[in-house]
């Protein structure tokens, strides 16, 4: 069920970044903006359901960006390749 207050906030949020695309790039980088906007929508509705202000805090925006940019964990097989066996013995490539 849509909430009018949340939808107004989201429309203003999206309009701001449509008018200032460089600010959006500075904030999210190479993340898809549709994915970013969807996460903002989810957090805004979560704030509303908890009885808080529908607008996101700076820390909530940062958490969304970090979550979207999260790199997959390093796989164990990559760690084994740090060491190379050569004619001179075991060498660490770090």
Outline the fold blueprint.
Blueprint: H1 4-19, H2 21-28, H3 33-49, H4 58-69, H5 76-80, E1 83-86, E2 89-92
Antiparallel strand pairs: 1-2
Helix pairs in contact: 1-2, 1-3, 3-4
Q: What would you note in describing this structure?
A:
This protein is mainly alpha-helical and 94 residues long. The chain has one domain. It is 62% helix and 9% strand. It has 5 helices and 2 strands, in the order αααααββ. The chain has a two-stranded antiparallel sheet. A hairpin with a 2-residue loop joins strand 1 and strand 2. The longest helix has 17 residues.
Biggest sheet, spatial arrangement of strands? 1-2
Task: Please describe the biggest sheet, giving its number of strands, its sense, and whether it closes into a barrel.
Answer: 2 strands, antiparallel
Assembly state of the chains shown: single chain
Contiguous low-pLDDT stretches (5 residues minimum) are none
Helical segment tally?
Answer: 5
N/C terminus separation: 53 Å
The total count of strands amounts to: 2
Write down the Rg: 21 Å
Q: How would you sum up the global shape?
A: elongated
Order of helices and strands: HHHHHEE
Q: In what range is the share of β-strand residues?
A: 5-15%
Q: Percent helix among the residues? A: 55-70%
Number of domains: 1
Q: Give the overall pLDDT as a whole number.
A: 84
Structural class: mainly alpha
């Amino acid at each position: 069920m849509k909430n009018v207050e949340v939808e107004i906030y989201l429309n203003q949020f999206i309009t701001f970044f449509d008018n200032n695309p460089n600010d959006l790039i500075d904030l999210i980088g190479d993340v898809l903006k549709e994915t970013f906007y969807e996460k903002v929508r989810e957090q805004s509705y979560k704030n509303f359901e908890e009885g808080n202000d529908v607008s996101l805090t700076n820390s909530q925006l940062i958490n969304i960006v970090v979550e979207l940019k999260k790199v997959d964990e390093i796989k164990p097989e990559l760690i084994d390749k740090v060491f190379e066996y050569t004619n001179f013995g075991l060498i660490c490539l770090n």
